[in-house]
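Re: weekly structure request thread

Next one in the queue (445 aa):
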Amino acid sequence: MKLQSFTLHNYKKIPQINKLTEAQIEAIEVVGNVLPFKTNNYVVNELIDWNNLESDPIFKLTFPQKGMLSKEHYDTMKIILAHTRDKNIIKNTANIIRHELNPHPAGQLEHNVPMLNGERLTGMQHKYRETLLFFPSQGQTCHAYCTFCFRWPQFVGMDELKFAARESSHLKDYVVKNKEVTDILFTGGDPMIMKAKIFASYIEPLLEAKPENLQTIRIGTKALGYWPYKFVSDDDADELLNLFERIVKSGINLTIMAHFSHPVELDTDIVKTAIARLRSAGVQIRTQSPVLKHINDSPEVWAEMWRKQVNLNCIPYYMFIPRDTGAQDYFALTLEKAWIIFREAYQKVSGVCRTVRGPSMSCTPGKVQILGVSELKGEKVFVLRMLQGRNSDWVARPFFAEFNPNAIWMDDLKPAFDEDKFFFEDELDILFNEHITDVEVENFE
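Done, posted below.
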């Protein structure tokens, strides 16, 4: 099958477009001028139930919905679109709204960008000691866009909000120089939007340099969910699989961090074939997704998804809380509800599925897991721990927050037991005041 993309400019060419109501068309036009919109013929024809759009998870996962903007923002854009076709006016209005949607949460622009030889490497993030995130410039789009995506600023034409690395040599040089880096995570966008030859241009210098500290290459991708043909019948699929085999044979673990948000994404013959091909090349596949209202907010859905993944030789890895950006209000569940979904799903599956961790928030200090709700010293509390932290000493340390039934993110929580601060806050302030990126690079030499 040949990839055919649908965006705001041509979505009315979708064969099933007559299934949409006027209200749904309006929502696509209004919201799609603020948040990114892109889908493709595989998603449209194989994953969406066009006879049940009101409750179809993949439709809501890929098509803009009215509730994804606040009433104020929605009405503002609707009025602008009704009164002008001037692209600059529309874009400027959209950008004003976008800047109010917390486009880069968790200090991505301020605190995560590393330095090399005095140069800011804006196409990388180095938040955790062992793991380097790399944003190849040719991988800053996707086969389709998830409406919840916390990296939506990458796709809306706001260059000052983009991450993108244009020098492949910087990746190799940084990993060689910083011995604590054991893992590289190729991310985006979606690195698997790139041709195999382009992806190889980033991999080949690493294979040639053979840095002893590099143990794992990860690829964060939604391609298995949105375009599994990438690994089966695209014109460079065999070339890509051969490159993967070379990585594995070099002694580096290669892991696809596969984003699956609903069991329906695992049901097609082509995705099963793609997973089998990747596994036969020695690639490990770990799976993750946020827990999302309207998409997968039931324990039955998660239990089914984890079972299907394990049966296809994939490893359930993370359940995330959607980040505090973009359309968060549309998708967000309370932290208590997310934990209940996780716990009840976890109870429904066997031990081979219980490799999954969550629910977890990727927030400024690190990845914070909600372990549960309990009562201690006569106080109802959230029990938390860090799965990752800016300081590795924070990892796996339990801590407690006052129970807040309305909390949907870390910023909504306060320390329990009349404590003034969480245990990491003073050190976090010191790190930020000392310009953390420079400190990190010095420590890694």
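DSSP finds 16 helices and 15 strands in the chain. The radius of gyration is 22 Å.
Next request, please.
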